[in-house]
Amino acid sequence: MQHRVIVLGAGYTGAIAVGRLARRLRREDVAITLVNAEPDFVERVRMHQLAVGQELPPRPLAALFAGTGVTLRLARVTAVDADRRTVTVTGEQGTAEDLPYDTLVYALGSGWHDQGVPGVAEHAHDLANRPGALRLRARLAELAAGASVVVVGGGLTGLEAATELAEARPDLNVALAVRGDLGERFSPKGRRHLRAVCDRLAITVHEHTDVTAVAADHVTTADGTTLPSAATVWTAGFAVHPIARATTLDTGENGQIVVDRSMRSVSHPQVYVIGDAALAMGPGDKPLRMSCASGVPGAWQAADAIAARLSGGKVPVTPVRYYQQCVSLGRRDGLIQFVTADDRAVDHALTGRLAARYKEAVCKAAAWGVAHPLLVPSRARGVVQAAGAADTRFAGTVV
């Protein structure tokens, strides 16, 4: 009987894990099913480009995984029963079905987080997924010259959104509201460059500004100031999919699923968690941040651990560490901030056009890795044991 592996979510981490598993395990021994709500792989790191009107090449999942033996199931995940080892999905016809699994890879990721701020859900736009980016795109197309747009959030997503928008639509008045200093996570060189770019693109930066309410035509800050906004872009954090908290899986305070060094759930060894949904500890005993920089190595780790446990091999454990933070600042500028293993900025940073090319190369490399799953160098191995049934070397251990 084939070992049933179900992967939930086809973002970067889920898609990479599926391709790696298909390469590492023999088809006659495993049945790999990928469940995703959309038929295409979406480059989430490019949603700010899509929002300003740029076209992204379609990447159908069926084409990406043709010839791999992976079964694609277009459906929405509505529940996970980790005790019964089933996943409930709802297909395009609205019919619910329970899918049993032997090994589950949970890669449902995260969505935007309104932080409980009044009016965000009703009036703000997000860049957490393709539908959100397309809604913002349609709204921006309606705006006449001179209209005001406020981007809320000074993280990487907010910086990319504000600069991309200001470059693509110089006729709009673009403002960026950040809680602390502009670019406070960067080195002095990085902060200087970021400020220079905002000045060049005529972006009004409101530092130490906490947005407390969003209306259809303005936002309100903690000190009572009203900022006009015909379109508000909310990038102030991400929240993991609520399904995780509704399960019996061990989760942290923010709903992320607690995993060990091999990305396996500490409470349910048949479940592996990758991407934004995983609560994994990195260098300096700090939780890994929600990012591709954390998620992609985690996907490699999980796939390799599953393959090793199923085939009776030694489980490889490679600690995830950071090297850089990559930010596009429009199409012709960028910032590559080099960091320590635990994600603290160092003095060295790359800026300007070279940084823009660097960031573009990183994005293309990530997409290439998804599109070429069969090029992972490995010999397919047969299944000799059930994952999690006998190997407990890492159970309950969190790095």
TrEMBL record:
Keywords noted in UniProt: FAD, Flavoprotein, Oxidoreductase
Pfam families: Pyr_redox_2
Superkingdom of origin: Bacteria
InterPro entries reported in the protein's UniProt record: FAD/NAD-bd_sf (IPR036188), FAD/NAD-binding_dom (IPR023753), NADH-Q_oxidoreductase (IPR051169)
Protein name: FAD-dependent oxidoreductase
Native source species: Streptomyces graminearus
Similarity-based family: Belongs to the NADH dehydrogenase family.
Phylogenetic lineage: Bacteria, Bacillati, Actinomycetota, Actinomycetes, Kitasatosporales
Record domain FAD/NAD(P)-binding: where: 4-303
Listed cofactors: FAD
